[in-house]
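The records we work with from here on pair a chain with its fold. A complete example follows; check for yourself that the lines match position by position.
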Amino acid sequence: IFHSFEYIVYYVLKGMKNHKEKSMASLEDILVKKHLKRTKARIMILKVLEKSLPLTAGEVYELVRGKDTRLSLSTVYRNCEALAEKGLLYRSTTMSDGLTRYEYAHDTPVYYAICLSCHRIFPVDVDLEKGYRQHMDEEYGFEVAEPKVEIYGYCRECRASGKAEEHKGKMELL
C-alpha cells in the first residue's frame, strides 16, 4: 500500500469537513436506483470513497473494518467491483504502480497528480481545453467517454528529501 494509513485517514476526514455529507438514506436511494442491495458494506464503502482520494480495495478495507470487524478484504473487493460495474465507482489503474483503485463517481471529473517516487496521489485543479471532445472526434475520430487526467512527476516532499533524484537515477538504469 503506497499511501500511509494516516495520510488516507487525514484526507477522508478533511473531505468530510470540506464537502456536504450525503445522508445514509440518499446513498441507499442511489443503490436502489442502480438495482443493488442496500448492504451495510456497500454504504460504508460509498461513504469512505465519496470523501477520499482513489483507494485500493485494501485501503478501503483498512478504513471500514473498524466499523464492522466481520467484513473481509474479499467482501470489500467484490463490493467495490459491483459498485464499479453499476457506475457508482470509477475503477482506475495508474501507470506508476499498476494497482487498481476505486473512486466515487462524482458529477464532475477530478484530476490527479501522482508522485513517481512515493506514489502519493494529489487532486489538482486543472481543466481540459474547451471543445476537446469535438477536437478529439474531428482530429482523431475518437469519441471521448470519460476524461481522466493523471499528471506524473515528483511531489514537494520527495524533491526536498532527495528521494526524487534517487528515483530518477534508478529509472535511468532501466
